[in-house]
């Protein structure tokens, strides 16, 4: 419980320091930081459309952050969330365009399952390679990001039939039977690209929390991640758990990609690099400090920065890149949380010592008085 | 009484952690050239007191006097400067470095920009001759025995000019012969004017090595007295605060059918070398079979082979008449084994999980602890509360992490979990390593109760006293093979000691007869 509290204060300090660094940089380059940050907040919360944009941004980040956390609990560092998300995105869009006449109540569940399933497969492969051959999942997932990126682009450009494509670089929009957008939400947010995906994300926070803390599966994943030897001794299969944990992790990323495809963009287009949601999700998980509520808060903060940053150049002249600096500084301070904890410990130790010396003085006076009664030797 | 100034005097030391007083008015006086033992149960406050003396902790109140002068020891380097050196239980040596490099580390002699290893080696050689600490200054740490590594640790403190040497459980890792050598070293050091504080809970060693003993119980110094003429029984009773039974009374039990049958197995160690070779042994219901041997003779691999944690290369392991060779650990556990592993922190528990979760570690997947894959936390806590009560596991509650508990209570928790499942075979590896006599007595009683209830028990231990106290039959292992199997009634420490070095039973008995006749 104290560690939760600790990581909350670390996150809070990190955000604060990140914003201060952003302010210093604005000052150095001759911008007014107050008007800069006011512009940021205005662009993030100025209208219902802006709020819709923030929620749309949050949706995949929550899922990729959950994915990162599950893998991390099992002792793995899944850098492949990006590629796993892309697998879900391509697969779900391709599938839904291929069956334009499937009724919505069949299409949406099956498309979500296919997208998540492809992500899970993309996650399970490095998990299996790690379990079977001891291959580092860090390296394998990084390499698989490239494989999946170019595989996705290649499928779009060379494998998909002309009939479902808008141009060589873009698919057609998915049909109404596969879209996750909801009219009342779109209307409420004045035409933002928010979708039912935000509800899926929120539900998944609860589902993943339940799996990880309340089921035997989560118990095993935690046990394996904390102490492999003890887990083996207790009869758990560390290999099976490696594959399962990485599959869940990849599945959540795949679901994030699916929602990008069927909720946000409604199509798939040639990607110049691995989707940012994978890496931003890692940042969210780190800022969230491994807590599930923390992930929700961290996703909100980073999304506000991102959406708010888009409006900064127009209203205050501060370039959008400033937001990237602030975000990067925040993550830097989370990473350097050791430093923050050390500072807190130092301050506390100084307080304790001050208290101790006064107390010790009092006690030693009492001690020397009773000293004469003390018998030496036996 | 002589009016000498003590080398160390600690007066009215109090150390509080929150409301808990780990040291509650402790007084300690050590004279020059004295070997002074600190005796106390786990958690009595010995380590806290020594951490205060070596500057790792600050006392809440109290004074420390070195050679009659009051000092503040507020850092380990301060304690170094005052001539206090500590030999830790777990050595702090770098394997890839030589003896000399390890000893100079942190106080290197330099010649220009290079290290002057030669001068250092000479100084080490001179020290080792002066105090009888034979060790090759140019040998690598990874190439020398545990006993020699300990000498390097001692030399390290002497090299830094220590006059007061603190030893924390120094014999825990040594063979009986190495223990004798260490005690001789103690006497050499004392003769040369060094003072020694010996932290231990091994009573025989106190009687063999120490001049004076201070008993610490529940954070208080109870009594200080000369060791001469005091019996182990008196020491134990003082330490625990009640009467302790060393010999656990064993009823005679009808030995039943064979539960575990090991048939000519071979198990390799991590480096791929056969650590257990052609090993056969039966354990029957209602008997305790002890495996005696020096550390590193295949005991670890044997247990891992039986329990499915390591691959059995050849041969067969029969459990209840079923071939369980190379089955998974869970299949083997479910056939009815309770396994108390030798390294409780590495294998026995998840130190970052709660006590309640740890007590469910072997049965979490079964009803009533889980239903349809969902953990039943209420049932888990019920089980934990029941076991904590039944096995006297002390902690701040069942939701604390296992890592925050004391070693003795961690071990009791492991034993509670493994004995609770009503298994027909109990495998206990080093069941009392690092525990004090009170906990040892308790655990021995539990194991004997299992035997008396008709279970088969296999005990592995490096401590001959433990083996002799518990076992009905004793198998001695050397270099992965059984040297001999003897009845506990017909053997003694000397005979087992010879067998452990690899001597055959007939040779050992002949050799012992000769020494008696001579």
Q: Which stretches of chain A are low in confidence, meaning pLDDT under 50 for 5 or more residues running?
A: 359-378
Number of strands of chain A: 2
Secondary-structure element string of chain A: HHHHHHEEHHHHHHHHH
CATH superfamily of the largest domain in chain B: P-loop containing nucleotide triphosphate hydrolases
The figure for the number of domains of chain B is 3
Mean pLDDT of chain A, to the nearest integer, reads: 89
Summing up helix and strand content along with how strands pair, one would put the structural category of chain B as alpha/beta
CATH architecture of the largest domain in chain B: 3-Layer(aba) Sandwich
Please tell me what the overall shape of chain B is: globular
CATH architecture of the largest domain in chain A: Orthogonal Bundle
Q: What's the helix count of chain B? A: 18
| Major sheet size, sense and barrel closure of chain A | 2 strands, antiparallel
Provide mean pLDDT of chain B, rounded: 89
Number of strands of chain B: 24
Report, as a whole number of angstroms, the end-to-end distance of chain A: 48 Å
Strand content of chain A: under 5%
Entry summary:
The complex is a heterodimer of chains A (378) and B (518). By secondary structure, chain A is an all-alpha fold. Chain A has helices at residues 2-28, 33-45, 48-73, 81-98, 104-133, 137-159, 183-188, 197-214, 216-226, 228-233, 238-265, 276-288, 292-316, 321-335, 337-371; strands at residues 165-167, 170-171.
Overview features:
heterodimer; A: 378 residues; mainly alpha; ABC transporter involved in vitamin B12 uptake, BtuC; 15 helices; globular; disordered C terminus; B: 518 residues; alpha/beta; Rossmann fold; six-stranded mixed beta sheet; 18 helices; 34% helix
Question: What does this protein look like?
Answer:
The complex is a heterodimer of chains A (378) and B (518). With 378 residues, chain A is mostly helical. Chain A has helices at 2-28, 33-45, 48-73, 81-98, 104-133, 137-159, 183-188, 197-214, 216-226, 228-233, 238-265, 276-288, 292-316, 321-335, 337-371; strands at residues 165-167, 170-171. In chain A, helix 8 (197-214) packs across helix 9 (216-226). The longest helix of chain A is centred in the C-terminal third of the chain and has 35 residues, at 337-371. Residues 359-378 of chain A have low confidence and may be disordered. Chain B folds into 3 domains: 8-240, P-loop containing nucleotide triphosphate hydrolases (Rossmann fold), CATH 3.40.50.300; 256-336 and 424-518, 3-Layer(aba) Sandwich (Rossmann fold), CATH 3.40.50; 345-421, no CATH class. In chain B, a hairpin with a 2-residue loop joins strand 23 and strand 24 (481-487). The longest helix of chain B has 16 residues, at 176-191. Chain B is globular and about 70 Å long.
């Amino acid at each position: 419980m104290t560690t939760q509290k600790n990581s909350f204060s670390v996150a809070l300090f990190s955000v604060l320091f990140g914003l201060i660094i952003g302010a210093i940089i604005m000052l150095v380059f001759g911008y007014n930081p107050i008007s800069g940050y006011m512009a940021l907040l205005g662009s993030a919360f100025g209208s219902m459309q802006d709020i819709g944009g923030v929620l749309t941004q949050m949706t995949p980040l929550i899922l990729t952050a959950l994915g990162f956390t599950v893998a991390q609990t099992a002792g793995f560092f899944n850098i492949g969330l990006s590629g796993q998300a892309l697998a879900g995105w391509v697969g779900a869009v391709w599938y839904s365009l291929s069956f334009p006449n499937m009724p919505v109540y069949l299409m949406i569940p099956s498309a979500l399952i296919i997208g998540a399933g492809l992500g899970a497969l993309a996650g399970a492969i490095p998990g299996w390679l790690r379990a079977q051959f001891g291959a580092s999942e860090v390296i394998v997932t990084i390499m698989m990001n490239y494989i999946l990126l170019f595989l996705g682009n290649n499928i779009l450009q060379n494998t998909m039939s002309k009939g479902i494509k808008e141009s060589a670089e873009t698919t057609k929009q998915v049909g109404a039977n596969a879209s996750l957008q909801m009219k009342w939400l779109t209307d409420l947010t004045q035409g933002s690209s928010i979708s039912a995906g935000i509800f899926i994300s929120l539900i998944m926070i609860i589902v993943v929390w339940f799996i990880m803390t309340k089921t035997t599966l989560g118990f095993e994943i935690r046990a394996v991640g904390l102490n492999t030897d003890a887990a083996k001794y207790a009869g758990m299969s560390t290999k099976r758990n490696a594959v399962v944990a990485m599959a869940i992790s990849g599945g959540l990323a795949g679901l994030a990609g699916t929602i990008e495809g069927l909720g946000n963009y409604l199509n798939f287009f040639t990607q110049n690099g691995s989707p940012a949601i994978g890496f931003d999700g890692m940042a969210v998980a780190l800022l969230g400090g491994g807590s599930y509520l923390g992930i929700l808060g961290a996703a909100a903060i980073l999304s506000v920065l991102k959406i708010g940053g888009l409006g900064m150049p127009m209203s205050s002249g501060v370039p959008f890149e400033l937001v990237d600096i602030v975000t990067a500084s925040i993550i830097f301070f989370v990473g350097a949380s050791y430093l923050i904890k050390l500072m807190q410990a130092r301050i506390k130790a100084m307080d304790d010592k001050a208290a101790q010396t006064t107390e010790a003085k009092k006690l030693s006076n009492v001690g020397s008085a009773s000293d004469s009664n003390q018998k030496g030797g036996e | 009484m002589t009016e000498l100034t003590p080398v160390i005097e600690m007066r009215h030391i109090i150390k509080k952690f929150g409301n808990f007083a780990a040291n509650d008015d402790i007084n300690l006086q050590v004279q020059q050239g004295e070997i002074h033992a600190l005796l106390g149960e786990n958690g009595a406050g010995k380590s806290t007191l020594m951490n205060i003396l070596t500057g790792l902790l600050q006392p809440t109140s109290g004074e420390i006097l070195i050679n009659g002068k009051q000092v503040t020891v507020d850092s380990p380097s301060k304690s170094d400067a005052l001539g206090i050196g500590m030999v830790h239980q777990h050595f702090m040596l770098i394997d890839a470095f030589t003896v000399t490099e390890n000893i100079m580390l942190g106080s290197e002699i330099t010649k220009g920009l290079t290290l002057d290893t030669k001068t250092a080696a000479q100084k080490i050689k001179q020290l080792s001759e002066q105090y009888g600490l034979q060790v090759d200054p140019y040998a690598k740490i990874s190439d020398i025995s545990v006993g020699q590594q300990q000498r390097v640790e001692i030399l390290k403190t002497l090299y830094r000019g220590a006059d007061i040497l603190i030893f924390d459980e120094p014999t825990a890792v040594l063979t009986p012969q190495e223990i004798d050598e260490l005690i001789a070293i103690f006497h050499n050091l004392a003769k040369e004017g060094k003072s020694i504080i010996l932290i231990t809970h091994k009573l025989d060693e106190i009687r063999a090595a120490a001049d004076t003993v201070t008993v610490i119980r529940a954070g208080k110094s109870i009594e200080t007295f000369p060791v001469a003429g005091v019996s182990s029984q008196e020491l134990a009773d003082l330490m625990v605060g009640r009467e302790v039974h060393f010999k656990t009374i064993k009823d005679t039990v009808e030995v039943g059918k064979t539960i575990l049958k090991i048939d000519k197995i071979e198990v390799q160690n991590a480096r791929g070398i056969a650590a257990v070779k052609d090993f056969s042994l039966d354990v029957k219901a209602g008997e305790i079979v002890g495996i005696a041997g020096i550390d590193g003779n295949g005991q670890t691999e044997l247990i891992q082979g039986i329990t499915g944690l390591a691959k059995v290369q050849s041969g067969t392991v029969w459990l209840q008449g079923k071939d369980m060779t190379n089955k998974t650990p869970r299949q083997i556990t479910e056939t009815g084994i309770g396994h108390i592993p030798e390294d409780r922190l590495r294998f026995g528990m998840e130190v970052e999980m709660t006590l309640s979760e740890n007590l469910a570690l072997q049965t979490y997947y079964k009803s009533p602890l889980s239903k349809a894959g969902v953990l039943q936390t209420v049932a888990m806590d019920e089980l934990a509360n029941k076991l904590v009560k039944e096995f006297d596991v002390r902690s701040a509650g069942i939701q604390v992490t296992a890592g925050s508990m004391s070693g003795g209570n961690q071990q009791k928790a492991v034993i509670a979990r493994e004995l609770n499942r009503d298994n027909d075979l109990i495998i206990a590896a080093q069941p009392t390593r690092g525990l004090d006599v009170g906990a040892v007595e308790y655990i021995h009683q539990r194991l004997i109760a299992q035997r008396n209830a008709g279970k088969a028990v296999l005990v592995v231990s490096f401590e001959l006293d433990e083996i002799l106290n518990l076992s009905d039959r004793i198998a001695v292992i050397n270099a992965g093979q059984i040297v001999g199997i003897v009845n506990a009634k017909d053997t003694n420490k000397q005979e087992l000691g010879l067998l452990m070095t690899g001597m055959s039973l007939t040779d050992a008995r002949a050799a012992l007869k000769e020494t008696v006749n001579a």
